[in-house]
Amino acid sequence: MAHRSRAALTALAALGGLVAGFCSLAAAELVSALVRPEAGPVTAVGGAVIDRSPAALKEFAVRHFGTGDKLALELGIVVLLAVFAMAVGVLALHHRRTGSAAVLLFGAVGAVAAVGRPEGSAPDALPSVVGAAVGAGVLFALTGRLTTAPPRPPASGSGSGSGSGSGEAYRAFDRRGFVITAAVATAVSAGAGLLGRRLTSSVQAGATASRHDLVLPVPDSPAPAVPAGTGLNIRGLSPFFTPNKDFYRVDTALVVPRLDAAGWRLRIHGEGVARPLTVGLHDLLRREIIERDITLACVSNEVGGPYIGNARWLGVGLADLLREAGVRPPSAGGPADQLVARSVDGMTIGTPVEAVMDGRDAMLALGMNGEPLPFAHGFPVRMVVPGLYGYVSACKWIEDIELTTFDAYDAYWVRRSWAQQAPVKTESRIDTPRSLASPKPGTVPVAGVAWAQHRGISRVEVRVDGGEWHTARLAAADNRDTWRQWVWEWPATSGRHTLEVRATDGTGATQTGRRAGTVPDGATGLHSVVVDVS
Questions:
Q1: CA distance 234 to 158
Q2: Over the stretch 489-506, which tens digit does the pLDDT of each residue have?
Q3: Where are the alpha helices (DSSP H) in 153-258?
Q4: Residue of 171, 259, 445, 514 with fewest CB within 10 Å of its CB?
């Protein structure tokens, strides 16, 4: 009996820890709605984990969870918090003040993480501090119900011996008071959490409305018409333009920033900036608007991976803005060789000034595939620089551009073992047939995409089982900054076969077959698929 009572008491203590943890997070949710959503403890700690994760761990997360890596991280943090809360609840059963102090200590961790983020400030500590105080108070109250209770009268006919021993002591707690206290705390906290969500939603509603109301202008320099035959009509082949909903997203933002376009500003300053600029969205809309088709690729893309997409972008030429600010590229004697773009979420991205000003269509993009940028892709304004991997060119939610040098400053990913400069490598991918597919013998279209942004694709070849290379038929080329579709009609025979592809870019350089990982400047190797023809 004593054993069962002890187990029940421990279980209630663990439940009390969970209730206290829930109350803590709910209170933090409400306060973060008043400060900013990114200051919430789960988001802050998750961001700190991302900031401090080695490149290998980041690559593991992207490889195994894809664009769901952030959700996986948040779920992992919540699970760890639940385990911690239950452990603290059991600790508080025996050491009531120590258990409550542990909650406060964990709140301090969240506060330090929030303030320590690149975009953090002192007010960002408030959600974690208030949440920890609420959680500690709830835990202290609930533990009190488990450790104190009116004494029970001795059982009829029992003496002062073993009948009122340790088992009776473990049963002597205020179960009803615990349940009532836990229920009230949970209900109040749930209401606070819902209020926080509604406050956050009301703030974000302004941003949503500003995106809805934004009318994209007709470009002064429209993209040339896509040539006929750019898209091959082959089942399983990626479309030439990637729909916005399918466009890859790889970044460190656990909470997607939602900015009101009316309040957005971009500052341009730093070395060699003779005339610093601060511009808003409507300032950009009054400038010359260009429209271009550009393929973007993530440096985390494994050979044959999905983190690449092609879109039609609308925006303002970045080089024109820099020249207006008096910036000269290094080749013209400018002192700055690096442009550091800063996002509202604290991300820093370093781009070669020479690449931005060498005549390519580097832009501050406002639109994507005929609509304002989606929030997840940088609304209201992002950078797009063709020919460079995204981590050195494609700053989303941009708010600041500083001209400096590569010697003076290492951007976010460079401090995490990635290369300072990273032009996109010549790559190709087989989209169909898929690996382990079972086509029938006969003519099988082997098709995919190849890319070498800012150099273009001049040839694609396919081979079977390590044999001779066969030249694939290329789709019509749009421009040298977009990927290119290809197809080879394979006379398939029965059996298991390995298909490989390689591309040659516009300079005549053929992609290497040497396998290398994504760190430090992008993966290399030939994409292959194994199929069973039967």
A1: 87
A2: 999 999 999 999 999 999
A3: 166-171, 175-213
A4: 514
Rounded CA-CA distance 283/479 in Å is 29
Taking only the tens place, the pLDDT of each residue in 168-226 is 444 457 888 899 999 999 999 999 999 998 988 887 899 999 999 999 999 999 999 99
Helices (H), 287-342: 318-324
- From 180, 179, 178, 172, select the one nearest 150 (Cα to Cα): 172
> 421-451 in b/e burial notation, b at 16+ Cβ within 10 A?
bbbbbbbbbbbbbeeeeebeeeebbbbbbbb
Integer Cα distance of 403 and 269 in angstroms? 6
Question: For the stretch 237-251, what's the b/e string if a residue is b when 16 or more beta carbons lie within 10 angstroms of its beta carbon?
Answer: bbebbbebeebbbbb
- What does pTM read for this prediction? 0.84
Residues 6+ apart with CB under 8 A from 26: 131, 189, 190, 192, 193, 196
Find out whether 99 and 139 touch, Cβ atoms under 8 Å.
yes
Place of tokens 């403890």: 41
- The ranges of the chain with pLDDT < 50 are 150, 157-171
410 Cβ contact list (under 8 Å, min separation 6): 350, 420
State the pLDDT at residue 530. 98
Which residue is it, tokens 């994409």?
527
- Asked whether the beta carbons of 328 and 271 are under 8 A apart, the reply is no
C-alpha distances (whole Å) from 518 to each of 54, 195, 298 are 13, 43, 10
Residue in this structure with the two tokens 């600041």, named with its chain if needed = 400
Residue 132 CA neighbour count, 13 Å, CB half? 22
Measured CA to CA, the distance from residue 87 to residue 253 in angstroms comes to: 30
Contacts of 506-513 with C-beta under 8 Å, sequence gap 24+, read: 506/452, 506/455, 506/456, 506/457, 506/458, 506/480, 507/455, 508/458, 509/426, 510/426, 510/459, 511/425, 511/426, 511/427, 511/428
Contact yes or no for 516/490 (Cβ under 8 A): no
Q: What is the pLDDT of residue 15?
A: 94
Burial class (CB in 10 A: 0-12, 13-18, 19+), 354: middle
Instruction: Give residue 160's pLDDT.
Output: 42
pLDDT of residue 165: 40
The label of the residue with tokens 């205020």 reads 174
As a whole number of angstroms, the distance between CA 103 and CA 112 comes to 14
Q: What are phi and psi of 407, to 5 degrees?
A: -70, -30
Helix H or strand E encompassing 364: strand 363-368
| pLDDT at residue 64 in the model | 67
CA distances from 46 to 9, 40, 304 (A): 33, 10, 29
Q: List the alpha helices (DSSP H) in 306-369.
A: 318-324, 353-356
